[in-house]
Amino acid sequence: MLACSLISSLACLTPLLSSSMILSVLLLKCDFCALSSKFLLGF
After folding, report:
1. How far apart are CA 34 and CA 27, in angstroms?
2. How many Å apart are CA 9 and CA 21, to the nearest integer?
3. How far apart are alpha carbons 43 and 37 in whole angstroms?
4. CA 20 to mean position of chain CA atoms
5. How far apart, in whole angstroms, are the C-alpha atoms of residue 5 and residue 15?
6. In angstroms, rounded to a whole number, what is the distance separating the alpha carbons of residues 31 and 36?
7. H/E segment holding residue 32
8. Per-residue pLDDT of the chain (43 residues; tens, 9 = 90+)
9. pTM
């Protein structure tokens, strides 16, 4: 019984975790692009 609830909670959490990881990676890429453009514009 415990294993079933654990597996179901894991199945619910996995998409959330993957989507949040993808979002954080996108945010990091956006920050990196902004920083590099600032450097390019600064010089």
Report:
1. 10
2. 18
3. 10
4. 4
5. 17
6. 9
7. helix 2-42
8. 788 898 888 888 898 889 999 999 999 998 998 888 888 888 6
9. 0.57
